[in-house]
Structures are given as structure tokens and as C-alpha cells.
Write the C-alpha cells for this entry.
Amino acid sequence: MRGSRRRRHTVREAASQILADRGHEPEGLRGTLVVSAAAHALALAALMLGPASWFATREEPVPGVAMAIRLGGPEGPGEGGQTALGGRPIQQLLTLEEARRPQWIQPPTPAPPEMILPVEEPAPRPEPETEVETAPAEARGRTPTRGPELLEGTAMADTGVGGIGVGLSGGGLGGSGGEISLSDFCCPEYLNTMLQLIRRQWNSNQQVPGMTVLRFTIQRDGAIAGVAVDRSSGYFALDMSAQRAILLTNQLPGLPSAFTEPSLTVRLTFEYRR
Amino acid sequence: MRALDHYAFTLLQTAGMSASEEGFGGGVLELIGRSSLLSQAVLVILVLFSIASWAVVLFKLRQFRRVESQTTRFRDVFRRSSKFSDVHSVCRSLARSPLAGIFQAGYVELNAQLRLADVSNGPDPPSESAARRRLKSFDALDRALLRAANVEVAKLERRVAFLATTASITPFIGLFGTVWGIMSAFEGIGATGSTSLAVVAPGIAEALIATAAGLFAAIPAVYFYNHFTQKIKELAGAMDDFSLEFLNITERNFS
């Protein structure tokens, strides 16, 4: 059928039949469609079942020495007091002379009366028939010592921290959480000073509650550098207020010499409460 | 007491944060499951578009690979052989090359014209080695070659337009889904009367998935559309070149 038609038309349009034939495509799209659908299914499965670390943002490694301190939060105990913070065992020599013993107040001796009635001598006690034996001196208890004495350290020692009253946690009651990693930090007094200086610049009275975590680095000379928002509260104003507190503080006393690292990185949590 | 409450609340918050950091994929799934029917439909459409466009891409990649290898082979054969009939016999095995199509069209047209000339010349069969046969019209031959080239280019371009469509449409579809999702998020604000981020953020996150899916479908489509257009341009140049070569040879031999 087709051959006969071609023969008839050959004279007029020789190439038409060939062109029509070549216009057809031998294979359809079905094969690649199946392949593509399978690949998409695989990708979706990877998205669902794959570990989250493939897609989530990566956590930045914390550089150097960092410590987390929480500013704000419920009120802690006020100034003064003993704390287990930095409870290093203390051994020291105490001399007995220096140990102040409290003196009790003696009442004044009463004045002698003008006149006294003569009192009759009591009857003399009867003499015991047998001798009373006294214990030897060694049998009696502890003999008081004179001279230096060694005291064992205890868990509670006066480290001079003085209870950072605003929730530097671990400082006794009322701190807000075990987030602190100060246990082996040498100088809690320094942190106390730092927090006081920062609190002085910080306006914690904002409209909304929230929590901003800032990260900054204290150089050896006490200058503050590298202020960055570690975790935003979600409110621009709160983040800015916390950053302003740090930037206005600007200069802290130099790092204590007992702290050997070149700088100290602090994660400071600002907690705004309504 | 209040301090204690506050402390508990902070604990809860941090627990929630760590939970959301745990599984991204699970979070996305959860978002999709919670989203409205319309945005789910948008996502389905986008996935279908992506599947189809990748199918086209794979199909075209395979086609172009074959076309290119067969074209180079055909060109080799054409330049090496001394007779058109030899080349014509090869055409069937190298049918995917557009040059083969052009050659076939030209060959048929040439034969037809020669046969016509033979018929008009006289009843005696012409001897091959006798006087040189003349071609009646080179213009007709040129037109036949041109037609064949058009057919071949159309064949190469088939379905590439779908990639262009995908590239331009899918971002808009995704954007539509996002806008719709944000609209409903704002409705949620109006309903609850609170502007806190906790109310708005999940709706917006869920809405943004649609845009991401749209871009996911569109970007490969754009790349491969440009890739294929460039390839088609090169092949069209090769076809023109071949047509002129064919014309030259026939003009040299049949005039």
C-alpha cells in the first residue's frame, strides 16, 4: 500500500516520504520517565530518612576556653556568705595565738557591803577514813597543745566569691540552672566584678520576655572583643540591648594572673523577664 | 514560685530547641503534613514537573549522545566514499544522524530528477559511463535539502520547549504556594490575636517549602535548556555545512 503510493508520488515530491519517516521518533519518553520518577523517590527517601546532619546547619565549634554564665534569672542570695563555688580544698597553718577566741563578758564584781554579819563557822567536814586515789595525768583527755596546727580542708570554704546575687548559678541557693562550667576556673572574684560591670550597663527591663546568648572574648588586658549573638532571642531589641551592654562596658579589669590562657571566651545568657 | 515557673519554662524551651535540631527531614515532613490542602497540591504539581523535566533531560541527553557519535561517523563515511550509493547504503545504520536524513532527502531528489531527465531524453536506457548526466534544477535540490534540515532541527528541538516551560513556570507555582501559605499564616495571627513568633513562624516555614520546591525543579531545567539549545545550534550549523557540501559535489558532478 505504502510502496505503491510512493511510486505514484515519486515524480512530484521525492523527498516527502523520507522526511515524514524521519520525523517519527523511534522510542518514547516512558523509559526515562520511569528512571526520573525512581530518582525522585530516592531523593525524597533520603530527605526523610537521612541523618539530619546532611541538611541542618552546622554547629560552630566553640573556640578556646569558653564559659557559660547566665545573667538575669531569679534573685540569688545577696552579698556575702559562703559558697561552694570554686570549693578548692584549703590547707593552711594557723597558730593558736592568732586564733581569736571570743571572750565572754564578765559582770563587774559587786561592791563589798558596808557591814557583814558575823557568820558562824560551819562544822568541819569529817575526815575520810580512807585515802582517795586520783587518776594519773595520762588518763585524762586531750591535752591542750601549743604551737602550729594543721587544719584539713573542707568542702565549704570561704573563697571570697560572696554570692553573685544575680543568678550566677552554683553560688548557693536560687541560681538558675547547672549551666555553669566554672568549677575549675581559678578566680570567681573576677567573674563577680565582670558581671557587676556588665549589669551596670544592662537594661533588663524590656517589653517582652526572652533570652539572648552573647559570646565575647576577654583579652588579657581586659578589653572585650568579638561580641556576637550566639543564640538570638528572636527579638531585635533584646539582642541589641544585650549587645549594647557589652559594648558600653568595653573595658574590664585585666584577666587575673592565675588564669593562664591568653583570652577568655564567655557565653553570657541575658534573660529578660517581664 | 514565679521564679520556679520561669525556670521550668526555660527548660521546656531549650528542650524544644534541641528536639527541632534533631531531625531536619522529619521536621520538613511534619511541616508538609500540617500544611493546607492547596499547598500540598502545589507541592505535588511541582514534583510532577520535576519528574517530567528530568525525564526529558535524560531522554535528550541520550538522544544527543547518539546523534553526535553517529554524525561524526557519517561524516567520515561520506568523505571517504566515492559514490553516493555507498553512502546511501550506510544511511540505514546511522539513521539517528541528522546528516543521514539530509543526505537521504537529497539523494532521492537527485535520483528523481535524473530519472525524469532519462525519461524525457528518450526510451533508450542511458549508460552510466556514457555522457555526463545533467541535473535539471539545483534549486529544487537545495529546497529538498532545506526541508530535510528543517525536519531534523524540529526533531532535535522536540520536548526541549518543555524544559523552558518548566524553568519559567515552576518558580511562579512555588511562589503562589508560598504566598497562599503566608496569607493563611496571617489569618492565624488575626484569629489568635497574638503576634508572637511562635504563631507566625511555623506557617511561614511551611509556606517557604513551596518556593524551595519550585526552585529545585527550575534550576536544572534552566541549565539543561541552555545546554540543549547550544547543542542544537551546533548541529544546525553542521547540517548547513553538510547541505552546502552536498550541493557542491552534485554541482561538480552533474552539470
Summary: The interface with chain A takes residues 3, 6-7, 10-11, 13, 21-26, 28-29, 47, 50-52, 54-59, 62, 95, 101, 104-106, 108-109, 111-112, 116, 144, 147-148, 151-152, 154-155, 158-159, 197 of chain B (CB under 8 Å). The radius of gyration of chain B is 32 Å.
